[in-house]
Every structure is written in C-alpha cells, then in structure tokens.
C-alpha cells in the first residue's frame, strides 16, 4: 500500500511539480467549451512524448487520434525549431478542425497536416504514397490497435518509435471478467508487442498504461 494520503497518487504528485502550461490549458479549455470528450493524453505522458521526439531526433511524426490537438502539440514541441512535420489522423471533421486551429495558434500551422477519416483508410493511403515516419502515437479506437501497429511497422523508418496510450483501459485489461471488443483487442495488442521480434518494447504502467516500442528496421 502507498504510505500517502489517499488522494495523492504518484502521477498527481509528479504532475503537481510542474507549472501550469498556458498553451495546453487553453487546448483543454477549448475541448471543454466544444463539449468534446476530455480524454487528451495525461500530462506526464504528454511530457514524455515531447522528450522522446526531441531525444530521438524524429522529424516526421504521425498521430492516430487527434481530438483537440493536445498530444499533437506535445509531439510537435519535440521537433527542432522550424524543422519536421506532424501528420494527424482524425475520424471526426469537427475534432480535426479544432485540433488544426489549436496547433496553428501554438505556432505549428505550417508544419502540421490533418487527415480526416477512418485512420485505417488514411494509413493505407499514406502507405500507397510511400510515406515514412520516425514517430507514431497511437491513441484512437482501441479495437484497431493491432491494425494500427502493423501499419506503423510498415510505415516506419528504421529505429522509429511507436507509443500507444490506454493499454490498461482503466484496469479492464487486467480483469478477466471483462471481455468486450476493446479489452480483447488491447490484450491481443499488449501480448503481441511483448514477443514481436521486429520491436524493442517496454510497457509503462502509470496513468492508463503506455506502450513504448522501437521498430528495429535494418539500420
Ligand atoms: N491523442 C489525443 C490527445 O491526447 O490529445 C486524444 C485522442 S482521443 C483519446 C481518441 C480520438 O480518436 C478521438 O478524437 C476520436 O474521434 C478518434 N478516433 C476514433 N476512432 C477513430 C478512427 N477509426 N480513425 C481516426 N480517429 C478515430
């Protein structure tokens, strides 16, 4: 058991050390004002995305599931000044419009691209165009995580990073009584990545769970 007041979690403790981030706070407020679901990536994982993009020198970023642009901004912030590009795939046109607006207001309008529609179709189109990416963030419909992972591996430059959020599904992943399609897909996804010879993988168990992987490639 944690020897701390019950309302303090490891995540809330570390989050409390950081100053309020005006740009991310504005995005959260815009999501609320539009009555959209408040399910942006957790702040600690947002910081991790920025860090990983910056540390790996990734230039071409792909996110699957844009919502209001919170994770998009976290990803874009890791790019070197004036360089690189973020491509976001989003099913809902009104969400894509807000995310585009928020990214433009944060100064990334010229370097971000929004593709509206079911992500599996958009990924097939990107593959047909021969596009390749250095960094993937998977954060859309959970049933398709196994599909998105296969696309990511095919679209990956050597040593590309794949991050995927919500691998715990608020504990449902661990509960054998839960057998819905999202839970089954996430269990399949978690198990498959753990033994995939094409990947170097780690599962982070904080917040709602994050999968991190590097696609080995040839280099
Ligand atoms: N990554 C966002 C962030 O942290 O700011 C949050 C994304 S939210 C958890 C999931 C998003 O995936 C929603 O905006 C939803 O509309 C989108 N989505 C759901 N199914 C999709 C699909 N089949 N193709 C593309 N986007 C989808």
From TrEMBL:
What are the coiled-coil residue ranges? none
Give a GO biological-process term.
methylation
Q: List the keywords (alphabetical).
A: Methyltransferase, S-adenosyl-L-methionine, Transferase
Q: Work out whether the entry's keyword set contains S-adenosyl-L-methionine.
A: yes
Q: Which PROSITE patterns match?
A: SAM_OMT_I
Keyword flag Methyltransferase: yes
The GO molecular function terms of this record are: O-methyltransferase activity; S-adenosylmethionine-dependent methyltransferase activity
InterPro entries given for it?
Answer: Cation-dep_OMT, SAM-dependent_MTases_sf, SAM_O-MeTrfase
Q: Which Pfam families match?
A: Methyltransf_3
Q: Which PANTHER family match?
A: CAFFEOYL-COA O-METHYLTRANSFERASE 3-RELATED, O-METHYLTRANSFERASE-RELATED
> Could you tell me what this protein is called?
O-methyltransferase
Q: Which organism is it from?
A: Cohnella fermenti
What taxonomic lineage is listed for the species of origin?
Bacteria, Bacillati, Bacillota, Bacilli, Bacillales
């Amino acid at each position: 058991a944690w020897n701390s007041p019950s309302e303090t979690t490891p995540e809330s403790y570390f989050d409390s050390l950081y100053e309020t981030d005006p740009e991310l706070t504005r995005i959260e407020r815009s999501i609320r004002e539009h009555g959209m679901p408040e399910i942006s990536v957790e702040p600690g994982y947002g910081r991790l995305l920025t860090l990983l993009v910056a540390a790996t020198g990734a230039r071409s970023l792909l996110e699957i599931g844009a919502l209001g642009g919170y994770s998009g901004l976290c990803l874009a912030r890791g790019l070197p000044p004036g360089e690189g590009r973020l491509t976001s795939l989003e099913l809902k046109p009104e969400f894509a419009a807000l995310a585009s607006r928020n990214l433009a207001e944060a100064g990334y309008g010229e370097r971000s691209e929004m593709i509206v529609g079911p992500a599996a179709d958009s990924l097939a189109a990107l593959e047909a165009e021969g596009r390749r990416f250095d960094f993937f963030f998977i954060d859309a419909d959970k049933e398709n995580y196994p599909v998105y992972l296969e696309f990511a591996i095919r679209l990956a430059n050597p040593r590309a990073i794949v991050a995927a959020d919500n691998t715990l599904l608020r504990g449902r992943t661990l509960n054998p009584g839960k057998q819905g399609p999202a839970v089954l897909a996430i269990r399949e996804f978690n198990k498959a990545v753990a033994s995939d010879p094409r990947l170097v993988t780690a599962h982070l168990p904080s917040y709602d769970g994050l999968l991190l992987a590097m696609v080995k490639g040839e280099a």
